[in-house]
Structure formats: structure tokens, C-alpha cells
Amino acid sequence: MMSVTDVATRADEGPAAEVKRQEIDEVTVRFAGDSGDGVQLTGGRFTEATALAGNDLATFPDFPAEIRAPVGTTFGVSAFQIHFGARRIYTPGDAPDVLVVFNPAALKVNLPDLVKGGLVILDSGTFNKRNLAKAGFDQDPREDGSLDGYRVLEIDITAQTHNAVEGLGITNKEAGRCKNFWTLGFVYWLYGRDRAATVDWINGKFGQKRPEIAAANIAALNAGHAAAETAELGADISAVHVSPAPLEQGLYRNITGAEALSIGLVAGAQLADLPMKFCSYPITPASSLLHELAKLKSFGVTTFQAEDEIAAVCAAIGASYAGGLGVTSSSGPGIALKTEAIGLAIGVELPLVIVNAQRAGPSTGMPTKTEQSDLYQSVFGRNADAPLIVLAARSPADCFDTAIEAVKLSTKYMVPVILLSDGFIANASEPWQVPDFNDYAPFPVKFRDDPEGFQPFGRNADTLARPWAKPGTPGLEHRIGGIERAEDSGNISYEPENHERMTKIRAQKVLNAAQDIPDQIVDSGPPTGKIAFVSWGSTYGSISSGVKRALADGLEASHIHLRHIWPLPRNLGDLLSGFERVIVPEMNNGQLVTLLRSEYAIDAEPLTQITGRPFKADRIYRLIKDAS
Amino acid sequence: MNVAPDPKNFTAKDFTTDQEVRWCPGCGDYAILKAVRATLADIGTPPEDVVFVSGIGCAARFPYYISSYGFHTIHGRAPAIATGVKLQNPDLDVWVVGGDGDMLSIGGNHTMHALRRNVDLNILLFNNEIYGLTKGQYSPTSRVGTRSPSTPDGSVDRPLSALEFALGAGARFVARSIDTAQKHLPGVLKRAHAHKGASIVEIFQNCIVYNDGVFDHFTEKKSAADTQLHVEHGEPLLFGKDKEKGIRFNPQSFSLEVVTVGEGGAALSDIVVHDETNKMLAQMLAAFQPPDFPVVIGVLYCDPDLEYVSEVTKQTEAEKEKAGPADINALLRKGNTWTV
Q1: Which pLDDT score, from 0 to 100, does residue A439 have?
Q2: CA A571 from chain center: how many Å?
């Protein structure tokens, strides 16, 4: 697969000499260090430079819950993995080929994941007795054979960085914090990356307030780049070239889930012709959505940081009641707190979009680790019969369309929609072919304004949605509330038959939303056959990758990926009945599998992984191979 | 506040629904309902621009009886939902109605933050010092020793003072009245409505079934003059049948004291003159408790400050002005892009 060819460095890289670069198809690189080392930032810049070079990519930021854990400890290690290639990339990579570590603790935590023969780049300046002890090394791993079988590049990055920024008028501590950019410069050279976008970014970030910090970081970046260019790297370490991926023609950008979700919600609100009130309470990993939307005030978004999760959902409901698009967001534990209020929104039949960036649980669980274990909570997790619509995004970019669909269904059916994302989707990024917003058909909300024959709980015959009549409309004054409402009038009703009818109507209304859901397609593989993998959410990339690999090897399997968790697509039952085996891979203890078994009375099999880490494509591939 | 283009003379009937009122006969809520309807007619905001939001409890049934827009929500959350209503449409007159359990116990956090943020809401706190709808358990405002189904040997925890709490939370309008005070209550309600920002009115409300007569010691007609102190901005703090008693500041103890005014007593010039904008005075007055002090009735504190939604709106408008039209395509293409 690997071939060595001569590839000239790109003209925009400056006056570098011709470099012999090894041409490779794909590679996975992981940066790891203390949570204060700027690892996530390094990963973010490398991602941008890689995207601009035209590779397809997927990333996996993996950081500890502690903001600044004690320096040098294993539990303070933060990591960022990027998988990029000259072909389509669906996952952040099963195992890194290259590991860049800023200290011994990062080596300790991450070395077991590195592929055999992989490259370790380490900052030898941090490999002192104290740091080795803090990382739990009895002996220096560089000397006791721990690194046998790997290619190792030892550089005193700490010292090199200090040299590079000397005389730029920053403190010793500030100089130390430039080492991530030195490292980035070094790695940029290895992969032939252009530094221009990163320099722009540094200037944008620090140029105004701390020009000396900007200058130091740029000096470190350039010094690292120059060091790599002039270093004798050794026979087994070479500069690399990864050709642009054969992506569909068009305009691309790199996007995280939080960004795509924020723009999608804003776009949805605009298509619905509604002002958005985004009411939230900080929680990992959902807060990034609040941060993104707080920057979009000019799009008519109002963000409200409430006093707690309950107030957040309640303010969103109040906003919807008054004729806006109420949106709230949280992660599983916060969604649990919002549950009673979600029941109110279901009962009074108001639109509400609830974003759940899932994380490992129960309770506090593992806040920064990803899991898709809130499917039960979303579909079933409320008191009484309280149905709503549940959608799940499959990747960072997919959040855009999913958000628009959530807004559309919620306003059309006057019912809350839960949009499931997770910690992985929220933080990870991928290149995205930017859509033309003009291609999206508007779905403007029509508020009721005619008092003639107005019934607050009268219904549209097709959808069963009730009219949306907002305060301020003359002649439509009415009262709604959490006590069961009489059909049509909405007045308080304890009549037994009315409650039964209203319960059935609320359930049917949600099922009717399936009219607006496209038929389920088979993502890859034949439409009937031996094995179908049915997945949802962020496992899309791994499952898709594993199945595609198997298909390429002539094995037989199919992949079906659901966005619509409830109601399920109308044809799904028929589709699944065409397969001998239905396997449901999930990052939980088996939730969608239960739903499918109960809905279709089929013998769907669970395939679970509950480690807080994404599925590996290889696991799916091997499973198909073993079954063949 | 909204002013109807063609001011119509509203009557209480214009704010009355066809729903049968379902409070216990003799409940103090009837009197409050009457006063509120009269106040709404007097204020003259058209019913379509008025919203009543309530939580859970006897008091929370209120919206069903006012023919404006109404939202009967869930326990304790009315201030949070009302905040959302106001965020979406600041032009609405939004009233929040709840009892002591609703707004000081399960929903205490939301009451605190609505007041702190200074959202333009009119919060009516019906304080009957008991849980009515759940059948008579003691509440966060019940006095020590209250016997109830959940405290058969008498409650041991000390009660919360609603207005001291409100002032501590940063409320800029704090007032008090009594359910049966049909002359006094509408005036206070009107002041609360006129205040731009969060206003809270504590209304002592008699629960005829579970806590009957709990306020008798200062509401009984024959002794009210001696046990109630009605405050008015700029007027001396006098009470008693012949205004023969007053409140004087004692600089030695840094406290207020009750004195007799006139011959042999304190001079009128020694009596504290009520200043609605003096928060420290308001805090001392809010803490007055019988039998040593009269219960203070009226507007204890009114000192307007920046209102939350107006400030939020200003930021949004400024950003809109700076950025120009909301172009989603431009937003999608912001930052680094490349062409394949």
C-alpha cells in the first residue's frame, strides 16, 4: 500500500528544497499531553491545516473532566486523535500510527494504543525523575525496553522552544506554553502542511491584546518546522505526503458537531420564520452549543443561561408559548432534571427542541467520555404516557440537517423533539461540503389569528397538531395548563373518556410524524441478505467503515443507519425482515436492540461497547469475517 | 407597557372567564381574585396583552379565572416559564401567581433568580403559611410549632420571611398587602405593575380550611390599627388609632424602635420618614414581627434599576446592527474554506 515517491513541497510552503516524501494513503496521529499543554488547540490547528490540504479526515478529542489536573499525572492527560487520508475517512482511526507526547504520563496512558512499529515523538525535556515518578514509571521507559518495537524520535522540545522565543519579551512560563506550537511546526513539516492558516489564527487570537505572545507562538511554530526540515530523522522516519481525497466537487469547510448544530438550529428557526430562544445551563459536553449560539445574536438568537436545568427548559417552553422557537440543551443528567417540564410541553402541545449531548452515566458517570445510553431516556423516560419525537445525528456535519428537521417536525406537529448528539459528535470535526441554504425549502409557521371557531385544542386533520395561538393575539385569549385538557376547548377536564382519547391522540400525533420521515435506506450492502447491522448516532463512521471494508473483501453484510429513533421509519419493519440476522451495535448495554425487538418482534442481537470510547471499525469487520 | 391605541374602559367583567371558581368557600383567594380583576380593569391593558403564569397549588388555579392568556404550569416553575414568555415578547404584561410552597420551597430558586435578574414580571405571592392543595402540611413560612399532618408534634424549623428573602435576592420592588384589604390591595398591585422590573407582592391570604385565622392577630379589625403599619413614601412611620405610635431610629443599637409620639413621648421630628429607595430601611421593616413590632403593609421598597430583557434586547440589536442581514449562507462559509 505504501510507496515512496518524490513529491516536491508545495510552492506556498516557502523556499524549501525538494524533499523526498513517502506517499501514504492514510494515517492516524494522536497528540497527548497535560490538559494544560494545549493539546486540544494543537489538534484543532492540525485539523484545519489538514482539511485545507484537501484530505478527508475525522477527529477524536479525548480530554479529562478535570480542567487542570495536577501537572504530570496520568489522570490529567488530554489527547486529540486525527485520522486523515487520500480517500474517504469515516472514523477517527482505530489505533494511532503516530503518537506525539508532551510528557511521560501521556506516554504511559497512550502507548498501549499505538500500532506496533508506530512512531513516538516525545519531549525528552520532560522525561526527568520527578515526571517519571508522577506518571508511575519505575524506570525510564526509554531505557527499559518499553519502547522496543516502536520508532522513537526524542527531541528536547522544551529547550528548543525556549531557545526559539528568547528575547521576545515574554516570561519563562509563557515561553514554556509555546511548546505546542513548536511541536505543531515540527509535525507540519513531516506532513507537508502549510503554516499560513495557523499563523493567521495565532494573530487573530493574540495579535490585538498580546502581540508578543502571538510573535512567540509564531516563532515557535517556525522553529519547529525548521528543526524538522534540517534534522537527521533517521532511516525509518521520513517526511510524508498524503494526497487530497477524491471528494465530491464543491466548497468545503471543517466543522465540529457543536458548530453544525448551532448553525442548523439558526437555519431551522429562519426556515420556520421564528425567533429562537436558546435556554440552557452549563454541562459537559453540551456547553459548547451554548457558547456557539451566544456568538450568533445577530441572527436573532437570544441565549439565556438559566439558574438550573429546570429553569432552562421552562424558559424555553415559556418562549414557545409566547410564539418563539424554544430550544434547550443538556446532557443526560440535566435532561433527567428537565423531564417534568418536557411532560408539560407534551401535554400543552407546544414546540420545543431538546438537544442531548449524551455522555457516559448513570449520574455523573464519565462526563467527558462518550456514550449513547440515553435512548431509553429519550423514548420512554417520562412519567405517564408521554410520547415525543426522537432524532439522532450521526456525525458532526450531520447535526446541521438533523437540527433543521427537529425544528420542522416540532413546529409542524406541536410536540417536543429530542435531538440526540453525544460528546464525540459535539467535539469531533470533519470536512463538510457546505450546502447552499437556498436549496432548503422554508416551512414558515402560521400562527392562528382568526377567532372564528377557535378551539385551543382543535386539530389539523392530517397531522393532529393543535393551533398555535400566541399571547398578544386579540380574541384568542385562552388558558392552557398541565391538568388534562378537554378535547377542543382545552379547559380542565377530569372526564375519564376524555383522558383516554387525549392520550391516544398525543401518541397518534407523534406516530403521524412518520409521514414526514423518508423511508429507511440501506447505507451499504444489499437490501436483503444474511447480516444487517442497524446502528444509530455517532457509531455511524465505525460501522460504515467496517461493513464497507468487508464488502470490498467480497464478504456479505449490510448497514442500516437510523436518524429517526421515534417514530421509526414506516418501512423499517419490512426492511429488517429481509435479513437472517439483525445485529445492533451500540455504545450502551443494549437499548435500540430492545426497541427493535419490541416493535417488530424480531430476534435482533445486541453488540455493545461501554468503554466511553468510539467503536473500532475493525471489530465490525472481524465479526463479519468470522460469520462468513 | 402596552397602551391600547383606543383606550377602552374595561371593567372587572372583561377579565372574568366562564370557568366556575373552585376554591373552598371563604378562601382568601376569592378576595384577591376580585382585587386583581378590578386592578386589571383599572390599568386598562387589553386582555390579549396580559398573561398569567402560575405553578401548582390552590393559588395556581388563578389563570383559569382571568380571561386573558393564561398558563398553569408545574410546581415552582412559574417564574422560569414567565421569564421565557417575557424574553420572547417583552410587550406583554406578565403576572406570576403562586403560593408560599410553590414560590419559596420547590420554586425558591426560580423566584430568587427572577428577582435578581430583574425580569419585568409582577409576582404575586399568596402566603397562607400552609400547603393547601396537598391537604395541610406545614410550609416554609409556617411558624415554629405548626401542627400539621406531616408535623403532628409541631414543626421545629424556623420560617422564611418572604420579603427579607426577596430583598436579599436583589428585588427592586417589594410590597405587602392582605387578601381582605380591598382598598389597599389594588393600589399596591397597580404600583407593582407600574414598576419596570421584577416586582414582588406578598399577600397574606387566609386558608379557611387548614390554617384559619393564622393572621388574625394583626388583621382583626379592632386591633389592626395597633398591629399594622401602613407605609407611604415620604410619610412618617406612624400607626395606632390616633397615629400615636411611631418608629424611631436608635443610633446606639442601630435598630428601629416603637415609641409613643406626642406629649411625654418622642417628637414627630424623631420619627423615621419612609423612603422607598432606602434598602436598609426596607430590610428592617420587612423583618418587623408582632408582638414587639407592627406588621408593615404597603410598598416597602421601590428603587428601579436596569431590566433584564431590555438589556438583553439591546445587546441583540447592537449585534444585528453591526453584522447586517442574517445570511445563513455567509455563516456557513465563514472561516477557512477550500474548493475541491
Answers
A1: 98
A2: 28
Tell me: pLDDT of B4 over 90. no
B95-114: pLDDT as tens digits: 999 999 999 999 999 999 99
What is the separation of C-alpha B154 from the centre of its chain, rounded to a whole number of angstroms? 28
Mean pLDDT (whole number) for A94-114? 96
B81 CB neighbours in chain A (<8 A) are 314-315, 317-318, 321
What are A413-453's pLDDT values in tens digits? 999 999 999 999 998 889 999 999 999 999 999 999 999 99
Out of B69, B315, B339, the one facing A251 most closely (by C-beta) is B339
Residue to substitute from B16, B22, B54, B88, interface A, most A β-carbons within 10 A: B88
How close does chain A come to B288, measured CA to CA in Å? 31
Sheet with B255-260, side-by-side order of all strands: B238-239, B245-250, B255-260
Alpha-carbon span B28 to B206, nearest angstrom = 5
Phi first, then psi: what are they for B121, rounded to 5°? -120, 145
pLDDT over 50 (residue A10): no
Question: Would you call B72 and A477 a contact, using CB atoms and an 8 Å cutoff?
Answer: no
> Which is higher by pLDDT, A546 or B4?
A546
Q: What is the pLDDT of residues B212-245, one digit of tens each?
A: 999 999 999 999 999 999 999 999 999 999 999 9
Q: Do B328 and A473 touch (CB under 8 A)?
A: no
> For A56, phi and psi rounded to 5 degrees?
-85, 155
* Contact between B73 and A310 using a beta-carbon 8 Å cutoff: no
Q: Which of A250, A470, A478 sits opposite B340 (nearest CB)?
A: A250
Tens of pLDDT, residues B68-79? 999 999 999 999
Q: What number of C-beta contacts closer than 8 Å exist between A and B?
A: 207
Order of strands across the sheet with A429-433?
Answer: A429-433, A251-256, B337-339
Looking at residue A18, what is its pLDDT?
63
Phi and psi dihedrals of A468, rounded to 5?
Answer: -105, 105
In B, which residues are within 8 Å of A483 by CB distance? 72
Whether A48 contacts chain B with CB within 8 A: yes
A201 burial (CB, 10 Å; 0-12 / 13-18 / 19+) is buried
Put simply, the answer to whether A470 touches B89 (Cβ < 8 Å) is yes
Note whether A54 contacts B: Cβ–Cβ < 8 A: yes
Kindly report the nearest CA distance between residue A165 and chain B, in angstroms: 28
So what's the ipTM on this one? 0.96
Q: For residue A70, what pLDDT band results from cuts at 50, 70 and 90?
A: confident
Contact status, residue B77 vs residue A337, Cβ threshold 8 Å: no
| Phi, psi (deg, nearest 5) at residue A546 | -60, -45
Is the distance from CB of B125 to CB of B135 less than 8 angstroms? no
